[in-house]
Structures are given as structure tokens and as C-alpha cells.
Amino acid sequence: MLVNQRRRRLIFLALLLLAFAFRLFVGLCSQFRDSDTKQIYLLGLKFYTTHAWPYFGPDVVWGEIQIPGALQALLVGAPFFVLPIPESPYILLNILSFASLCLLAWYCCKRLPEMPSWLVWSWLLTAPWVLDLSTTIYNPSYILPGSIVFFVGALESYQFTTKNVIAPWLANFMMG
After folding, report:
1. Neighbours of 13 (CB within 10 A)
2. Rounded CA gap, 15 and 132, in Å?
3. DSSP 3-state assignment of 1?
4. What are the pLDDT digits (tens) for 34-55?
């Protein structure tokens, strides 16, 4: 019995690792598909090479107006300090989106025990609309992790939608 549980866990972890590798591969193959992805990557590269705080984000129209805010350039440029290879921003983005999608899959399996867990996990990790934006450095790519954490917390903090899967203090913390 214990050997079967251990074997199932190892198979599950191997499948998760395979899913992460697939998502990373998709993200690396679809890089620089338009001017926005190239510009965002270059903003992060500029932050890494100059070590200057990026006060502005991407352009609204090439060269005319820039969006104020440094978060995106920091999220793209900071991974270079840890691993100075060109793929490091993609690795961080895929770690963030993969972890949040795993949280959502786990939460959906807890809330809906009648659904097969293999279906929930495979659907959430390989859905085309999620693979398209959450694996490539793009403006909306960094919204997914925060939104999943927020909405899981919101579903657990409201009295009429809670299933007591997450502690109330943690749900409120997730929304903050």
C-alpha cells in the first residue's frame, strides 16, 4: 500500500516536471513574436545591464508615450542577476505561472472532488489560451499568477462560496 502511494507520487511529480518542461519549451519557442514582447524583454535587459531603476514601462505607441511603472522591467531583468542567461526571464515567468496554475488545479480538485483530478490538472496546465500568454514575456503574462492567488483567496473568504479548504486568515492574505 505504501509502495503504491510512493509510486503514484513519483509518477505525479514526473508528470508535473514534464508539464513544466513542455510549458517552458512553448514559451521559448514563441518568443519575440511581435514588437511588444521584444520591447518588454529589452526593458528588462536594460535594467540588468545598466543597474538603473526603470521608472517607465513599455511604450503605448513606439517612442511616443511610455507607461509609468517599473514592475515589469524588474520582473524581466531581475532573473538575470540569479542566472545570467538569455532564457532566465522565461524561466521565472514559467515558474510563477506554473506554480499558480498548480494552486488552481489543487483548489479545483478540492472544491470539485467529483471531477477526475487528471482532467483538471491536464486541462489547466495545457489549455491553449493559458499556454499562449502565460509562457511568453508579454504585458498580460504576469497577471495570471496574481489573479489566481487573488481569486482562490476571494472564493475562500466569502461565507457563501467557502469550502473551508484554506484558512480564513490565509485567504484574506492571498487577496491582499
Report:
1. 10
2. 20
3. coil
4. 778 888 898 899 999 999 988 8
